[in-house]
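FAQ

Q: What does a record look like?
A: Structure on top, sequence underneath. For example:
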């Protein structure tokens, strides 16, 4: 956990010192957060929340964060979808799927029950984000349906995530000013 916190702090310090890279950093971390399985290893949501908090300090603008995160989320989720579409059965024989066939069945049941709504929910629910897009491909969700809901979900996630960090940054600043008198 200390390693992850150190990584988050280092990335935020880099962003703070290199504002001109905000778009690209947001794109890369959103891509990683939405690419099948990679999101398990990278604390991208925490980084995007932290970058959003830097908006509250006036150090960054929300627009390049939103633009980069939107594009990164779209690329990562679409690539995951096509990986699932192309390699569906082979993917199911890999970890973590092979160790949890019950979860695979639950995922398939969710797509049968909720359809495209499962993709939308997956954008905003961290544990699902690592597998929902690849599962949509495995389940053979129609490409046009996936693209439409994924576009909306990617833009919504890319806006809400850093905005939440910004709002939290304002709240912390307000609380700090109450107690410090500044």
């Amino acid at each position: 956990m200390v390693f992850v916190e150190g990584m988050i702090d280092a990335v935020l310090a880099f962003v703070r010192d290199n504002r001109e890279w905000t778009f690209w950093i947001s794109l890369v971390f959103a891509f990683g957060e939405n690419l099948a399985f990679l999101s398990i290893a990278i604390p991208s949501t925490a980084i995007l929340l932290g970058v959003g908090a830097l908006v509250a300090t006036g150090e960054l603008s929300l627009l390049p964060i939103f633009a980069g995160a939107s594009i990164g989320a779209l690329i990562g989720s679409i690539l995951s979808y096509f990986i699932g579409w192309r390699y569906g059965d082979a993917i199911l024989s890999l970890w973590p799927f092979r160790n949890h066939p019950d979860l695979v069945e639950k995922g398939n049941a969710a797509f049968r029950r909720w359809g495209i709504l499962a993709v939308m929910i997956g954008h905003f629910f961290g544990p699902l984000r690592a597998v929902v897009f690849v599962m949509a491909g495995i389940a053979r969700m129609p490409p046009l349906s996936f693209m439409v809901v994924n576009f909306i979900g990617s833009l919504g996630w890319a806006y809400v995530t850093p905005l939440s960090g910004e709002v939290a940054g304002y709240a912390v600043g307000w609380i700090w000013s109450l107690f410090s008198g500044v």
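Q: Is there anything notable about this one?
A: The CA atoms of residues 5 and 43 lie 9 Å apart.
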